[in-house]
Amino acid sequence: MIRSMEGVRVSTFVTPRAPLSGAASNRMSVASLNRRLPNRPICSASQSDEPRVAESFFRTVLSSMEKVYLSRNPTAHAVLDLVRAHNGDHICYDHFAFRTFGVDGHGIDSMAKIFLDFGYTTREELRFPAKKLKALWFAPPVGHYGENGSGVGGPLPRIFISELLVEEMSPPNQEVIRKYTNISGSGNKHAALASALGSLTWENPLYSDYQQLSRESEYAAWTLVNGYALNHVTISTHKLNSHIKDIKRFNHFIEDNGFKLNSEGGNLKVSPDGLLLQSSTIADSTPFDFADTVTESVPRSYIEFAERLVLPQYKHIAEEKIEEFHRREGFEVGNADKIFESTSKEQLTRKA
């Protein structure tokens, strides 16, 4: 069973934002997002934030997404088993991540709907110009959902959804992507269902189309064959109980047990403020049956690790009293840009 992160306990406390990094120009501020959303406070309960989806149904969907993810990603399964054997059965998750095509309604909004319906709140936008991507992350609903539980029955994770800016792609590749989103038709309305079933909302693509997309955007090629499938889950290392709660020790532990880490920008990705530390494995690959009778290995998903350090203003608080909202919040463009490379051909074929 995949474990999820501990919830943000903020019944009256507004979650603090970490100082903006040098990449702030690539991100919309929370304030600007609030202007876009009709006067919805970021971390305070309101009638509009109340879940419109039954909790039991929502957790069943998450459970189905996790089963598909584990079935395609033996590395993630093995890492989770290893950590449980060393640390005990309680593993918390920092976030779940998804990839989408930003065209014909198949972008971020299509995957975000079920999370917004359950009370998640839109937070910040991140931009990745070189990769022709943008992303939004979503905070779990205010309250204590599954606070004492674990796995998909425990505290809810953040959600990170990215989309390819299709209009910035070359005309031939825009045509390829639109061919499949047109086949999908209204499939974008059922993104969560597709993710839970492990099914594409379009027909299996041609290998020639996959190859063509991969030459311009490996993200596009990944999304063509994986669709709305869970791209990765992230262990919150600071929530572990043993010495591997320190992410540097965690990374050594993972490598000592034979797992390869994404080396883009170094094994450990560190935000400019030094408070968000991330790493990830290399994606697994499995055979895929293309429509033109070709079967080839394609990258699937990976597992990420994150440590959020305590914000400077809370350093005086005893460790046993530290809550998630005392720690660095949000995401960082520089870190995420390197984590994206976990599915790249360069990382998958790296020898050491």
UniProtKB/TrEMBL annotation:
SMART domains: DUF1338. It is an enzyme of class 1 (oxidoreductase). InterPro entries: HGLS (IPR009770). Transmembrane segments: none annotated. Its EC number is 1.13.11.93. It comes from the Eukaryota. Keywords: Dioxygenase, Iron, Oxidoreductase. Its cofactor is Fe(2+). The keyword Amino-acid biosynthesis does not apply. Pfam families: HGLS. GO terms for molecular function: dioxygenase activity. Gene3D superfamilies: 3.10.180.50. Belongs to the 2-oxoadipate dioxygenase/decarboxylase family. This is 2-oxoadipate dioxygenase/decarboxylase. It comes from Acorus calamus.
